[in-house]
UniProtKB/TrEMBL annotation:
Similarity remark: Belongs to the LysR transcriptional regulatory family.
Keyword DNA damage part of the UniProt annotation: no
Keyword Transcription regulation in record: yes
Species per Swiss-Prot/TrEMBL record: Roseateles flavus
Domain HTH lysR-type: 6-63
InterPro entries named in the record: LysR-type_TF_proteobact-type (IPR058163), LysR_HTH_N (IPR000847), LysR_subst-bd (IPR005119), WH-like_DNA-bd_sf (IPR036388), WH_DNA-bd_sf (IPR036390)
Record keywords: DNA-binding, Transcription, Transcription regulation
SUPFAM superfamilies: Periplasmic binding protein-like II, Winged helix' DNA-binding domain
Protein name per UniProt: LysR family transcriptional regulator
UniProt cross-references to Gene3D superfamilies, sorted A to Z: 3.40.190.290, Winged helix-like DNA-binding domain superfamily/Winged helix DNA-binding domain
């Protein structure tokens, strides 16, 4: 027998149990009798064809099927809230939270200052910056938007905007003053390089320098971008970064070195899952990020 389409009121019950962690707590929140809630969930599980919860002595936990259903149920709840605001309170300001995953530099330079602008424009809207090297799963709802350095392969992910920037080497003025003066060309092997430490030693910059410099040994490494930046500012060595001179750029005070890095470029993609892209709160934050992208395109070589 074919499975019936899932109904939103059933998914609301599922979501309440999943988020509260027990049938009794969800029944209190929903103002339903617990036997009624249990019966409705049992009917939903029968329609799905698999158990959604594993009942325990204290509360319950999601099964594998429940884990698969949870992100979609949360998205439906978000859409329902957005629809309610749009229809019944059309002039009310945006509310809620928008989670943006980004590499550490972009979280520091772009997202953190953006939070101040968002507070002025939409006080009810909160920005949550998820800074890290790992790629979060937008399909599972781990973030609403993402700034990624590689083009997404998932066809359900939408590229809302993108940048391409030259890759260059930066150092402190004091470090640069100790280097041979032009026109003597700089060689990669004569510089002290600052790179990523474990567990991120497989990052592209590490691999490129290791391939270009025999017996490569970095002068300093860290698993934290801000620590790398502080080391560079202190004159501990040279840091490879994209030439994206944001108005809040952390590169202020550093100098670009004439190092033969080749025609390497760094890409940045603003990405959203197609389920989230149309939400008003997500659209608003995406538009602010795109406006920052447009400012970045004023940097020579950035497009």
């Amino acid at each position: 027998m074919a499975r019936e389409h899932l109904r939103w009121d059933d998914l609301q019950l599922f979501l309440s149990v999943a988020e509260s962690g027990s049938f009794s707590a969800a029944a209190r929140q929903l103002r339903l009798a617990q036997p009624t809630l249990s019966r409705r969930i049992a009917e939903l599980e029968e329609n799905v064809g698999e158990p959604l919860f594993q009942r325990q002595a204290q509360g319950c936990r999601l099964t594998a099927a429940g884990q698969r259903l949870l992100p979609s149920a949360r998205r439906m709840a978000e859409w329902a809230l957005e629809a309610d605001v749009a229809l019944s309170r059309p002039h009310e300001r945006l509310e809620g939270k928008v989670r943006v995953a980004a590499p550490p530099r972009m979280a520091f330079e772009l997202l953190a200052p953006l939070a101040a602008l968002l507070l002025q424009q939409q006080p009810g809207l909160r920005l949550e910056a998820l800074s890290g090297i790992e790629t979060l799963n937008l399909a599972r709802g781990e973030a609403d938007l993402a700034l990624r350095t590689s083009r997404p392969a998932d066809k359900e992910l939408l590229i809302l905007d993108q940048l391409s920037c030259p890759i260059v080497a930066y150092a402190s003025p004091a470090y640069a003053a100790r280097l041979p003066a032009p026109p003597e060309p700089l060689k990669l092997a004569q510089l002290d390089w600052i790179v990523w430490a474990p567990p991120y030693e497989e990052q592209q910059v590490n691999q490129a320098l290791a391939a270009a410099i025999p017996g490569f040994r970095p002068a300093f490494s860290s698993d934290d971008y801000l620590v790398q930046l502080a080391a560079c500012r202190a004159g501990a060595g040279v840091l490879v970064m994209a030439r994206a001179l944001h108005r809040h750029s952390a590169l202020d005070g550093l100098v670009e070195l004439p190092v033969p890095l080749g025609d390497h470029r760094g890409d940045l993609f603003l990405v959203s899952h197609q389920r989230s892209a149309g939400l008003p709160r997500v659209r608003h934050v995406a538009a602010l990020i795109s406006a920052e992208f447009e400012l970045l395109r004023q940097t020579p070589g950035v497009h």
